[in-house]
Automatic annotation (TrEMBL):
This is DUF4870 domain-containing protein. InterPro entries: MamF_MmsF. It is found in: Membrane. The chain crosses the membrane at residues 6-30, 42-62, 68-93. The keyword Glycosyltransferase does not apply. Keywords: Membrane, Transmembrane, Transmembrane helix. It is a multi-pass membrane protein. It comes from Peribacillus deserti. Its main location: membrane. It comes from the Bacteria.
Length: 100
């Protein structure tokens, strides 16, 4: 098996143990274009859940301004959980595809 394929797939699988650290290290240390490209994509996919926190913040703001039931907060948390699950599955699928 090719070492570059293993490193590229490891950048996707690093969502389980070092989500930001390993793709950044692989991007700056590796000289191979294949590894750099996949580590950059993996880093972006690992950053997506942090942008999803906006769902929760906007939901909380909507609940505090309107009063009543915290429906928007529950909706924000639900959408955030769904987003995290989709990103996790996407990273697993991309890591397996890179190994093939």
């Amino acid at each position: 098996m090719d070492t570059n394929k293993i490193l590229a797939s490891l950048s996707y699988f690093s969502i389980f143990f070092a989500p930001f650290l390993l793709p950044i290290i692989l991007y700056f240390v590796s000289d191979d274009y294949f590894v750099k490209e996949h580590s950059k994509k993996a880093l972006v996919s690992h950053l997506i859940p942090f942008l999803g926190i906006l769902f929760i913040i906007l939901g909380a703001v909507g609940d505090f301004t309107g009063g009543g039931l915290p429906i928007f907060s529950f909706l924000g948390v639900g959408l955030y959980g769904l987003l995290c699950f989709i990103v996790l599955i996407w990273n697993i699928v991309k890591g397996i595809k890179v190994l093939k």
